[in-house]
């Protein structure tokens, strides 16, 4: 596997994200480092000891660590990362809200590590494997007596009493489920341990991937490599690609080699469905919609389509399917309303009687 260096938490990055505090990091109370490809939490507990709110969602963090000195931290967002165990938050004495949505936590018993966080009121574990275990909710609310909501659902007094009464039974069920999941993860790691770098990017993005921390890392690795490659190609490019003819008219072009479907059967609007790779990050897609054509850049490659007649750009919609990854453009025709007005203005034909 080709090594790729992920974003590290540097002083420069933290200062950049602290413009609201005049780039002074020692007195920061809120910090957002989301979507930075951060793989490891480090240095923040030494640089920003006064943090009250910390956003680290949508990164590649696999372990909760190095937060022990954040005594004033009230809200920690670690959603959409690669975390498999809850740990190392015991010294975050002020923690009130913890968001671990969409991680890979299978060791549900690790919620016991939150017992010392007596001020914790809200816990989010939605989208983790452990939430599929039978008795998941009962187990958590019985163990963590201080929380008031779990996965955004309030915990009632009677619910907690019942959960405590069947805690022994829940513990047995949870441990069995954990062992099963542990076995599954070992098998999954073995399957994913060998990454075939001979697979080209097009085949990779089109293929169905397993939902796993290793897969998220591989997706990020390939994306970053492609991003660097695209930049090199842009720098080394000597001849610009022309998207217009000599008369200045736009040309149809499919340099991106994507499949598409253009539908003009609707009298009111056009629709354009473009098959974009499902797992391709939206940051690699740029849409430039003009009255007579659309230019879409996909990972540096151009797709351009010229419309039969003008559209209304400010009423057009560009949507990305969460299931297929496709781009869907819906574009109202400019002349649709004027054609209706003209048709209404025309006199109705008279029926002449036969003489």
Automatic annotation (TrEMBL):
PANTHER family: CILIA- AND FLAGELLA-ASSOCIATED PROTEIN 410-RELATED, LEUCINE RICH REPEAT PROTEIN. Pfam families: CS_DNAAF11_C, LRR_9. The lineage of its organism: Eukaryota, Metazoa, Ecdysozoa, Arthropoda, Hexapoda. Gene3D superfamilies: Ribonuclease Inhibitor (3.80.10.10). SMART domains: LRR_SD22. Residues 257-352 form the CS domain. Its main location: other. Keywords: Cell projection, Cilium, Coiled coil, Cytoplasm, Leucine-rich repeat, Repeat. InterPro entries: CS_DNAAF11_C, CS_dom, Leu-rich_rpt, LRR_dom_sf. It is found in: Cell projection, Cilium; Cytoplasm. This is Protein tilB. Residues 160-187 form a coiled coil. It comes from the Eukaryota. Belongs to the tilB family.
């Amino acid at each position: 596997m080709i090594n790729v260096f992920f974003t590290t938490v540097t002083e420069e990055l933290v200062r950049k994200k602290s413009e609201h505090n005049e780039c002074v990091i020692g007195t920061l109370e809120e910090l957002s480092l989301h979507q930075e490809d951060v793989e490891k939490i480090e240095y923040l507990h030494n640089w920003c000891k006064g943090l009250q709110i910390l956003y680290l969602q949508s990164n590649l963090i696999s372990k909760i660590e190095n937060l022990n000195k954040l005594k004033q931290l009230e809200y920690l967002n670690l959603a959409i990362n690669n975390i498999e165990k809850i740990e190392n938050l015991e010294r975050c004495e002020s923690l009130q809200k913890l968001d671990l949505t969409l991680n890979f936590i299978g060791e549900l018993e690790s919620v016991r590590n939150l017992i010392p966080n007596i001020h914790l009121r809200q816990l989010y574990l939605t989208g983790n494997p452990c939430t599929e275990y039978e008795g998941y909710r009962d187990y958590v609310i019985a163990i963590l007596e201080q929380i008031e909501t779990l996965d955004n659902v309030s915990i009632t007094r009677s619910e907690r009493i019942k959960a405590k009464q069947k805690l022994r039974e829940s513990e047995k069920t949870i441990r069995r489920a954990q062992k099963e999941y542990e076995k599954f993860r070992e098998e999954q790691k073995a399957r994913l341990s060998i990454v075939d770098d001979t697979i080209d990017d097009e085949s990779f993005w089109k293929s169905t991937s397993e939902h796993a921390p290793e897969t998220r890392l591989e997706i990020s690795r390939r994306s970053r490599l492609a991003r660097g490659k695209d930049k090199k190609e842009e720098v080394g490019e000597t001849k610009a690609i022309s998207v217009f003819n000599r008369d200045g008219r736009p040309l149809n072009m499919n340099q991106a080699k994507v499949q598409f479907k253009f539908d003009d059967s609707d009298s009111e609007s056009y629709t354009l469905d473009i098959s974009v790779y499902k797992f391709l990050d939206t940051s690699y897609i740029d849409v430039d919609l003009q009255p007579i054509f659309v230019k879409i850049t996909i990972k540096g490659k151009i797709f351009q389509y010229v419309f039969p007649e003008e559209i209304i750009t400010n009423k057009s919609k560009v949507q990305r399917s969460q299931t297929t990854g496709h781009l869907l453009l819906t574009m109202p025709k400019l002349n649709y309303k004027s054609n209706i007005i003209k048709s209404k203005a025309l006199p109705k034909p008279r029926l002449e009687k036969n003489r």
